[in-house]
Amino acid sequence: MQELLSIGYEGSTIADVLASLRRARVALLIDVRAVAASRKPGFSKRLLAAGLDEQGIRYVHLQGLGTPKEGRQAVRAGNPARMEAIYAEHMKSDRAQAELAQATMLARQERCCLLCFERDHMTCHRRLVAEAIVAKTGQKVTHLVA
C-alpha cells in the first residue's frame, strides 16, 4: 500500500508546492481546508485545481474535513491544543464522518496528499485527518515541505 502524504503551503509559492507534489508522484490532492480561498496567489480553489490539472494531478475539496472558524482562530492565537479539541468535536458530525470515509477510500486507491495552510503539520488539523485515515488503512504518513 502506498504512503499517505500531506503538505502545507505557508511560506511557499504555488510553483514550490506543485514541484513538491510532482516529485512525490501525487495522483490526487485532497484539499482539507474549510475555506478553499487564499490571499496567496495560486492557492484559491479554482486556480489550484487548474495548476494541479496542468501537472496531471487530480483535485478534490473535502470542505467537511476543514477546521471550524474557532479552531483556525485558536491556531492563529498560538493554541493548537484548543484547535485539536474543537476539531475533535467537529469530526463527530455526519458530514465530517462521510468525508473522512471518502478520503479514506481515496487514500486506499491511489497516492494522495492532504493540503492545508500551516507549514508545520504538528500545528495543523491535516495531521489529525491523516491520523484518522491511517487508523483505518495502516498506511505510512509522510509530511512534505514545499
Q: Provide the β-strand percentage band.
A: 15-25%
Uncertain runs: none
Taking Cα atoms only, what radius of gyration do you get, to the nearest Å? 14 Å
Number of strands: 5
On the 0-100 scale, what is the average pLDDT? 96
- Rounded to the nearest angstrom, the distance between the terminal CA atoms is 24 Å
Please estimate the helix content: 40-55%
Any idea what the shape is? globular
- Tell me the series of helices and strands, N- to C-terminal: EHEHEHHHEHE
In DSSP terms (H or I, runs of 4 or more residues), the helix count works out at: 6
Strand arrangement, major sheet: 3-2-4-1-5
- Total number of domains: 1
Structural class: alpha/beta
Profile the largest sheet: 5 strands, parallel
